[in-house]
Design goal:
Shape: globular
Distance between the termini: 46 Å
Number of helices: 15
Largest sheet: 7 strands, mixed
Number of strands: 17
Strand order of the largest sheet: 10-11-12-9-8-13-14
Structural class: alpha/beta
Amino acid sequence: MQLNSEFLKFQIGDEQIIKNMSRMPVEQPFDLDRIAFLNDVSKELLSDKEAKLYSDVVTFAFWLRRANMEKEKEDFCSDEKLRMGRGVVFHIAPSNVAVNYAYSFAVSFVLGNANIVRLPSRAFRQVNIINRAIQRVLERTEYQKWKNTLVFLRYERSQVITEYFSSICDVRIIWGGDSTIREIRRSELQPRAGEITFADRYSICILDAEEYLYATEKDKLALDFYNDTYLTDQNACTSPRLVCWTGKQEQILQAKEIFWEKLWSLVEKTYVFQAVQFVDKLTNICLAAAQIEGIQVKPMKDNRIVRIEIKKITPLIQEYRGNSGVFYEYDLKNVMDLVPICSGKLQTVAVLGDCEMVLPLVRSGVRGIDRVVKIGNTMEFSFLWDGYDLRERLTRKITLVGRE
């Protein structure tokens, strides 16, 4: 199979690198030089004035730091088993989240692999900032050895191109919706190649009303929730769509009034709305009202925040979920009430209060819930993601039989 480079738009690397990549040697995970490379990319980003304008880029830069990678290395390599990278990893990034591709690359890179990264189709400024930093560090003498193992590019939907990359990779990572995964799976992998898919998921939030009322930093909690939701227009799978309240009814009523007012004030100052978003939110309300019995839209100053109160937990709230600030709201009497929405689609439960309140639900045997985190941390990336241990999936373990 030949690669037609006419439709490829390279940001890092070129066609010749792709053609030779499958012959490049793999390395051990958490190699010290690879950790140093990522640490230098971190420094480059943290010293970039433009990068500081984007909180998701700054968060990524902090995540790349040497201390974080060395901690991961200590946790993973403590069993003293010999491991090596898998080879060539082909990453297909989502179109609607700016920095997701960068985390995917960094994980694979530090685990000893070569990487072909299909960048988001949307022209996010964050992508250019991150790629610029990587390119600068890659030009340094001590890191040029990896120039032949890294390609960042864009191309329009093309099964022929996807088939080519799939035919030479050892692992394919697909970040996208269910339909995207089905389409890409039409392109066959090598018999021994692996695949990691991150499909359509959704997330929810549980807020303890009493804990919220006693909290002294309510503005900080509003910012945390804002970062979990509005920062990605609620397009990230980690963004809560359903807000559940626990506690006594009078506490819940009081907490709601303060919480949504503080969030609205922050959104009004910070979040830039497009006209189409207002229309989309109105459309979403109408569709939900037609399909879900007994819902009530709670009054707000404007539709920067749309609150849809529900009387019963139903999977329909995920089928008719909106974005850009559309929240279903439910007064939760028992955590087991959430069972109907705990299918394999439910990824993250963000909590204000005791995270262990979710354990009865997890232990009941539901297929969903891969993460339980404090609010403000839903987008905090980890080598454990969507229930996958990426350190395991992107390396191979070598068995030494008869070792003394």
